Amino acid sequence: MNNFHEWLFQKQAFVESLLEKNLPPVSHETQLNEAIRYSVLNGGKRMRSLLILATAETLEISSIAIENIICAVEFIHAYSLVHDDMPCMDNDDLRRGKLSCHKKFGENTALLVGDTLQSIAFSCLSSPFFQVNPDNQLKIINTFSKAIGIEGMAKGQALDIEYTNKKISLDELKTMHQYKTGALINAACLITVLASKDYDKNMLERIDTYSKSIGLMFQIQDDILDKEASQETLGKTPGKDEQYNKSTFVSLLGISKSKELAEASYEEALAAIKPLGNKAYYLSSMAELLMRRSH
Prior knowledge:
It contains 14 helices and two strands. It is an all-alpha fold. The chain has one domain (about 1-290): Farnesyl Diphosphate Synthase (Orthogonal Bundle). A two-stranded antiparallel ribbon has the order 1-2. Strand 1 and strand 2 (about 100) form a beta hairpin. The chain is globular.
């Protein structure tokens, strides 16, 4: 496990440096660039990037395309958090222990931050220097666009709004989070596989199952931590879903059953990659890290 923690430290530093290099510099004309940098570079676990890198290690991919994929995924994730925190959505004043973007720069700038990050993300994936054959590059862009739009993240957010103040079933809650949280995690891993020169259908299916299980597990853990952890530990305001009468895994199942469901999802993720043996070391280590996290 020491080897994994060393890898983790090195890759997190690599990701931070990569993002910093690929963001627009601060401009004296408007505060937009500063707000973009503030929103992307304000910490975070970089869990999606680490899953991308762990998938790349499994398939032995070292192409510059992985760097572009990391940037695209992190920029979309940051944009989703900026918009999610706005008063018209979840209305949260804190993000990662700091003022959320709209509280620091205003709602109009926060809206533009999200719009701009989305366009930058697609410029990363459509780069002529992507080092992936054109057919696969188109598959990557197509998979990614579906994951963040009406077949993915945006649909999940719309369902979240629709389900507010309503009693929903466990299946409905799972479906909502499959789109809202899981779709980007799933896409991050799948488009990494698509960047490989010689991936096969079996590998794509294994990574698909793994990443979907990780996405569900991650959200359940989020709901549990929201109930058990402090604001200082979480870096955001706890109890917001309960305050706005939104269903969570904990509100539907209770803490104990939620932990059992998270554990079952964790085991499903490990089972999907078990046939890959030692090649999946970093993927299995990431699953354990996310399962045992405290924030």
